[in-house]
Write a structure and sequence with these properties.
The protein is α/β, with parallel strands linked by helices. The protein has a single domain, classed as Rossmann fold (3-Layer(aba) Sandwich), CATH 3.40.50.1360. It is built from six helices and nine strands. The strands form two sheets. A six-stranded parallel β-sheet has the order 1-9-8-5-2-3, with helices on one face. Strands 4-7-6 form a three-stranded antiparallel β-sheet. Helix 1 crosses helix 2 and helix 2 runs parallel beside helix 3. The protein is globular and about 45 Å long. It starts with a strand and ends in a 9-residue tail after the last strand. The structure holds the ligand O=C1O[C@H](COP(=O)(O)O)[C@@H](O)[C@H](O)[C@H]1O. Ligand LXAUTJHC binds next to strand 4.
Length: 241
């Protein structure tokens, strides 16, 4: 595991954008495409803007396929829909074609939406093992990642899959990659900043004994891939040095 700590969000986003572009270049050179899984929430907005502006001419964006590690069970025009945030911040600004974007269809019931999403992913990988080039992840202040929330069925889900999950504390359903699917990726990067994440990060990175039911981000441990944490100094302020 590689832990990169930044003093400013600008430096963090600049470095993370460079990292995304480097992996994209390598994937395109090797396979003529880059399978890129986006994270939702609000933390990645600046990164996506950065990629869509400074990164605009650095790679061939027509060779990039975009996926979502999780989605909220809301309509596609709802501000909480992760796909809409990505559409506004990176996909539309880069003019990404619809057939290169894998949105979660939330007009379907959550369970069906998850099944259809996995089917679409499998079809894209055309019988090959589903191994993403890069999965970006965020982490909530309760240590959830993607939509693997504490004390939910997803914490114990051992299938390489996309699943629907009822999140009691939010009284809502989510659709999410399972940890085993995430852990197959070639590269996984967490983007975590702010004081409100410090307590969770202390446990997720610092605890020698895991408690994944309470801190689901501890489930992320790529089998053969690389895990990198891009964090700011506020988020690591409670970690023992
Ligand atoms: O609900 C969600 O939260 C996490 C964390 O979001 P952040 O803005 O606090 O980083 C995010 O990774 C996930 O995609 C999203 O659906």
């Amino acid at each position: 595991m590689n832990l990169l700590i930044y003093k400013t969000l600008e430096e963090l986003n600049q470095d993370l954008a460079d990292y995304v572009i480097k992996i994209a270049e390598m994937s395109i050179e090797e396979n003529d495409r880059f399978n890129f899984v986006l994270t939702g929430g609000s933390s990645p907005k600046a990164l996506y803007h950065f990629l869509a502006t400074e990164g605009q001419h650095r790679i061939d964006w027509e060779k990039v396929y975009f996926f979502f590690g999780d989605e909220r069970n809301v309509p596609a025009n709802d501000d909480n829909y992760n796909g809409l945030m990505a559409k506004k911040t990176i996909l539309d600004p880069l003019g990404i074609k619809e057939d290169h974007i894998f949105y979660v269809n939330t007009t379907l019931a959550p369970e069906k939406a998850a099944i259809e999403y996995k089917k679409a992913i499998d079809k894209h990988f055309n019988g090959e093992d589903v191994i993403f080039d890069l999965i970006l992840l965020g982490m909530g202040d309760d240590a959830h990642t993607a939509s693997i929330f504490p004390h939910t069925t997803l914490v114990k889900d051992e299938e390489v899959n996309v699943a629907s999950v009822y999140v009691e504390k939010l009284n809502t359903y989510r659709i999410s990659f399972t940890a085993p699917l995430i852990n197959k990726a070639d590269n996984v990067a967490f983007l975590v900043f702010g004081e409100n994440k410090a307590e969770a990060l202390k446990h997720v990175i610092g605890d020698t004994e895991k408690n994944v039911d309470l801190f689901p981000s501890q489930l992320i441990d790529p089998i053969d891939g690389k895990l990198t944490w891009f964090v700011d100094d506020k988020a690591v302020s409670l970690l023992d040095s």
